[in-house]
Amino acid sequence: MRLTDTGDLWWKTAVVYCLDIETFMDFNDDGVGDFEGLAHRIDYLAELGVTCLWLMPFYPTPGRDDGYDIIDFYGVDSRLGHHGDLVEVLRTAKDRGMRVIADLVVNHTSDQHPWFKASRSSRDNPFRDFYVWRDEIPKGAPTNVFPDKEDGVWQLDEKTGQYYLHNFYHHQPDINLANPKVRDEIAKVIGYWMELGFSGFRVDAVPFLQQDGDPGVDPHELLRSLRKYLTRRAGDSVLLGEVNLPFEEQYEYFGGEASDELTMQFDFVGMQNLYLSLARQDARPLADSLRERPVLAQESQWANFVRNHDELTLDKLTEAERMEVFEAFAPDEGMRVFDRGIRRRLPTMLAGDPRHVRMVYSLLFSLPGTPVIFYGEEIGMGENLEQPGRLAVRTPMQWNSAANGGFSRARSRRLVAPVTPDGFGPAHVNAADQRTDPDSLLAFFEKLIRRYRASVEIGWGELTIIDAGVDCVLVHAIQGTEGSMIAVHNFSSDPQVIDFALPNGMGSNAELVELLRDGGVVADEKGRVSLALEAFDHRWLRVHSTDDKRLS
Ligand code: NOJ
Question: Any idea where the Glycosyl hydrolase family 13 catalytic domain is (predicted)?
Fold first, then answer.
């Protein structure tokens, strides 16, 4: 692969870390995390090996959807600091070689946004067309994304006697993306944050950009124009899309072969099948979804994740499969949300079993694509089920075992959210203790990230799923121009012995060097490898060839 093809495609081998400023680190002791707090924690993230920060919405907001209800696209919520504090974060991150991307939420605004206030003031207001209004509820209207809170997606506005569209909460009216003036406004917002130093955006709610109506919106055309605009301003910037759709539709949202829409997309299908595999102790659902993943153009990339800030959605599984996962990992009704997802973090779902937790993260970092971590995953944080809905997993970062987990020195009742209680609380799970413990989950993450970053084939290479002879073990090979590796993951709580053939091109008598522990194995003259695996074992093996110039 030539530098002229690959240079600057930093997202292909990035480590993305998602955080919400308000729950990360409080520096002014008011109980709410802030930019200054984050600036003081950039070195922690750099040491972990993070190369790209994804900042969840930090804009002024009434806070009825945790910041995804925005009242000023150019602002910084005063609880978090001001623009100067944000610029310090950007500068410090850049100094440590880290990129920063922001949430771009342009499907809707808050109903407190000045555009909507003007739009609803009268039918002939110049901002009326900034939103989607109808005289009647159109036939066949879809169900709302939040079915426990909203009856539908159209809300009657008494004053002007028309209905406005809201795919999410009724206080989040959808912007009229068919309006060219609105599109120019979005472009200005993008341009503004790019000038301040952002390297791109996580694009919220992509499937909903396709709005009902006349003339309607072609979301692909919209994304193409935004991507073009973005890359004219900064060629190495990205759009990371939230597109929870089947693979064929995701492929379209990459722009297919042209690769001119979203740069990256989360693999929701893979994530859901991972949980099905974990529930069944059977690697096949995950293996099947990896096989079905469309092969992407060189510039495009999958973003792999095991947790995000929302419900852990299982909506792409069948009803029966979803129930299997619920029964395994969210047996109580209170652990579920919207009838389609789980509001727990991974370690509590796996009963805190370190072998099992490490196996899953080893897998995350070895799957072809770019890993995305949600803050606190690296130390194994749990959730607070006393918090409503999705807020259960949005508790303060646990820095040490002091009061409030070192997140804030404010009185605990003033905290933006209570810290996680009990067994997964700061007394047992915190960054400070793990930093000095070579056997901690944090130390494991640091090692995984170092190995991942030295194994560029994970971001670039070609995937082969290898038949391991037993259904509970996933063996996958990734072959790149600079080298190849094999990853082995045992989904079973029982030890296994496997025997498999290396894919073509890896050769007979190949030497396989362990990347996460000492030792290695040698393939026989037919290119077959035997391995004895412990329960929930995970192995990364570099396939050594004479022209591989890496350390191992
Ligand atoms: C998707 C975000 O991930 C979620 O947190 C939010 O509630 C909706 N979009 C609405 O903005």
Answer: 22-413
